Amino acid sequence: MPLTLDEAQTVIAGAHERAGELAAFVTVAVVDEGGHLQALGRMNGAPPLSARIAETKAASVALFRRDGAVLRTMQETSPGFFAQLGQALPVPILVGAGAVLLRRGETIVGALAVSGGTVPGQDDECAEAALAALAG
């Protein structure tokens, strides 16, 4: 069963709630398993560029089927490969914090990414809160 719009909005609300606790202003993007935007929530005060960054990070995670931390390690160990991907693919690839897969059991149903945190770890904390909100 695919991720529903209600579930995507729950993900966004969970991340935004944590961001509020951190006094951060973030954007959260939720994409389906193919990397296509399903929902986007930009808090008032979030950087304008954060919407594009969040969507691109989420799509990258979904297309690679790996969490952002794993992609970051892959990029660090194979920078040439990632540089060539940017030229070969019709979509941009962006590796960064706060990007994780969404699963229903063992099935990947999408991904989420957070952008806009100004302190290291804020995007990750908001993404973890989003996962917790989805889990109920």
TrEMBL record:
SUPFAM superfamilies: GlcG-like (SSF143744). Transmembrane segments: none annotated. Signal peptide: none annotated. Coiled coil: none annotated. This is Heme-binding protein.
